[in-house]
């Protein structure tokens, strides 16, 4: 018996009846020989972790565009916090941690430079539209590995696609990640907003602090415990009505006071215009796009509009700024 088979047997003995077992996976689009060490979801986790798109997350905006400070979240640290939250919940509920971690690490691989500002820029200008969850699926299915993709299991791809509100994940592990994404960004964005002087803890309405707690640590602790208690031995990942309402209220408060705050977002329109200018330029100068993206047209029959989106969405903040300067700023004006 291989080590993988021993691990699969251990899953059958230990995991909840509601868990997704590795040996019962729906499989991959392309069949592969099984690894003798790792079950399928652990293997998927490793593939995502070693991908180029995962490494680029360290230089992509979470909320604050190019903030002056080392401790603000990036898209990478957001991803790691989602993974940590999700694994804590999955472990307590005896669900599949490998599957949860793979979905968590892959859920934002398709995010644009400049966070949601970049996403909005592409969505407005590209006739195909743009959604980062769908782009994350494109990354793992078609773009990574010179167009071959990572060939992940169907459960991981489903969890990546449905990590936003739309759609219902096939697995409880996918449900955990979808909820953990919201838990992570609401709480760490409060922390970053306080660090940036946009908010103080006292600005958060007392009714939310009374239910959730008066610090980032307390709120995470309250919400995580609530999810675990209300989902234990249940076929659904859920929260109590009181905590769910408080978290929704806090999220609404963040939209009104941070996500749409003119101080926090004063540079956002510049980022939107930068992304759109790049889209227009590469649409007219299609041959300037690197060959690894152009070959996607041959491999998968993608449109020019899709390839331009693929290239721009894959850029980091710093690279997008560098390319914009090279294209649009005269040499004598560069500092």
Quick structural gist:
The chain has 335 residues and is an all-alpha fold. It is 60% helix and 0% strand.
| Shape descriptor | flat
Helix segment count?
A: 16
Give the assembly state of these chains: single chain
Could you say how many structural domains there are in total? 1
Uncertain residue ranges:
none
CATH architecture: Orthogonal Bundle
Distance between the termini: 63 Å
CATH superfamily: Hypothetical protein af1432
Report the biggest beta sheet as strand number plus sense, adding barrel if it closes: none
Question: Helix/strand-derived class?
Answer: mainly alpha
Helical residues, percent: 55-70%
Folded structure, characterized:
- It is a single chain.
- The longest helix has 24 residues, at 172-195.
- The protein has 335 residues and is an all-alpha fold.
- The model has no long low-confidence stretch (mean pLDDT 93).
- The chain has a single domain (40-333), classed as Hypothetical protein af1432 (Orthogonal Bundle), CATH 1.10.3210.
- The protein has 16 helices and no strands.
- The radius of gyration is 21 Å and the shape is flat.
Features:
335 residues, mainly alpha, Hypothetical protein af1432, 16 helices, flat
Task: Furnish the topology, listing elements before pairings.
Blueprint (H helix, E strand, L loop, with lengths): L2 H12 L25 H10 L2 H5 L18 H19 L3 H10 L8 H11 L6 H12 L10 H8 L10 H24 L10 H7 L3 H16 L9 H19 L8 H17 L6 H10 L3 H10 L3 H12 L7
């Amino acid at each position: 018996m291989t080590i993988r088979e021993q691990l699969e047997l251990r899953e059958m003995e230990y995991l909840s009846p509601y868990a997704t077992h590795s040996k019962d996976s729906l499989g991959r689009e392309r069949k592969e020989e099984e690894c003798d060490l790792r079950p399928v979801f652990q293997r998927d986790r490793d593939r995502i972790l070693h991908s180029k798109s995962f490494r680029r997350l360290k230089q992509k905006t979470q909320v604050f565009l190019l903030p002056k400070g080392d401790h603000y979240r990036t898209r990478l640290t957001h991803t790691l916090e989602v993974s940590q939250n999700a694994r804590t919940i999955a472990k307590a509920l005896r669900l599949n941690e490998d599957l949860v971690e793979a979905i968590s690490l892959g859920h934002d691989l398709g995010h644009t430079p400049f966070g949601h500002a970049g996403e909005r820029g592409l969505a407005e200008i590209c006739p195909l539209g743009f959604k980062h969850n769908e782009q994350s699926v494109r990354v793992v299915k078609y773009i990574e590995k010179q167009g071959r993709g990572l060939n992940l299991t169907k459960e991981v791809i489903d969890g990546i696609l449905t990590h936003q509100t739309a759609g219902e994940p096939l697995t409880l592990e996918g449900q955990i990640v979808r909820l953990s994404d919201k838990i992570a960004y609401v709480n760490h964005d409060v922390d970053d907003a306080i660090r940036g002087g946009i908010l103080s803890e006292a600005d958060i309405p007392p009714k939310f602090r009374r239910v959730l707690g008066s610090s980032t640590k307390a709120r995470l602790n309250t919400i995580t415990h609530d999810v675990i208690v209300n989902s234990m031995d249940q076929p659904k990942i859920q929260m109590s009505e009181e905590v769910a309402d408080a978290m929704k209220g806090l999220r609404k408060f963040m939209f009104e006071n941070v996500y749409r705050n003119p101080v926090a977002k004063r540079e956002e329109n510049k980022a939107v215009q930068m992304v759109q200018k790049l889209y227009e330029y590469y649409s007219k100068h299609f041959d300037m796009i690197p060959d690894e993206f152009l070959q996607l047209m041959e491999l998968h029959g993608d449109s020019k509009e899709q390839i331009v989106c693929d290239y721009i969405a894959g850029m980091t903040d710093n690279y997008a700024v560098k390319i914009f300067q090279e294209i649009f700023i005269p040499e004598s004006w560069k500092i």
